[in-house]
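Q&A log
Question type: sequence-to-structure
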Amino acid sequence: MKVYNLFITTFLALNIVSCGDKQSDKESYFSFDENALKSIYQSNEKADFTLLNNNNKTIDSVVYFANNERVSAVKGNGKFTLDLSGKKLGYQKIKALIYFEGDTISTQTRIEVAASVAPKLFKYTIVNTYDHDVNAFIEGYEFHNDTLIESTGSPEGTSYLSYIAKTDYRTGKTIKKVGLDTKYFGEGITVLNNKIYQLTYKTLEGFIYDANTMKKIKSFQYDKQIEGWGMTNDGKNIYHSDGTEKIWTMDPETQKLVDFINVYTIDGKVKSINELEWINGKIYGNIYQKDLIAVINPQSGAVEAVLDLSALRAKVTNKEAEVLNGIAFRKTTNTIFVTGKNWNKTFEIKVTE
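Response status: OK
Response body:
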């Protein structure tokens, strides 16, 4: 009996190895020719893909997918070209489903797609300079009914709590403030339908307040495992950055993240997109650790222009001042208010091309 059981066990083990090896062999039959692909493509280009038939199998047909969407089918090992116009910037996962000799197997690769046009350099003039609370570690910054609403973080090593506040932009004085619990690091805000939406940094939680009373209406959980950074809205949807090159579209009614864009220049991705503001159909975004604002196409993610505000940073006098972070568009004057983390100044600027 023991000999018989040993024989069965050995037989099964050999068959498992044999089947595994057979599948492994099949997976090596076909592959994409990586040497024929560019390291990065622009969105106005076309990408040609060559499928290597490593074992000279007879291919009946190949079906191609881009990011799980069927894009082409060819007979035999026919040529496959993908037009990148209209495709999402960032990585495109390309899969080939190969039908051959009564069998089917898939192989995949990916390409990176960048913007097709280099960004312009916008210019600006300073309209006014205002005092600002030097202790405010700015994370969110937006006008509502001609009143500035600010959101702050609470960095380690400080005794300050995160809060949201209504602020008189002329004096920098707080009109009304609502503090957060000590476990929360406050992040971006936006005001939509008379509600203030606020993100927190790493706790996967946000808050909604009444914009008039600043009374908390509810809290909500992120439906993705991401960080909370900046927020803005276009009057219908909310946009939410997470510290990467992504900007998510959030449904304000459900607080669900329903889509995203990847922020790219002609050279590659732009990481650490921070505080956001919707201005005349574009997303203006601070780039963390840079004294720059990227002007982003909200449909494609392409950076269409850059605003260099390093000269403003030089005008901030307090030594504790950190990075530029804070963009608030004042529609009544068509001007932009900018500030930073622990800046003692807010600058009202007018931007031109």
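Response note: The chain has two helices and 29 strands.
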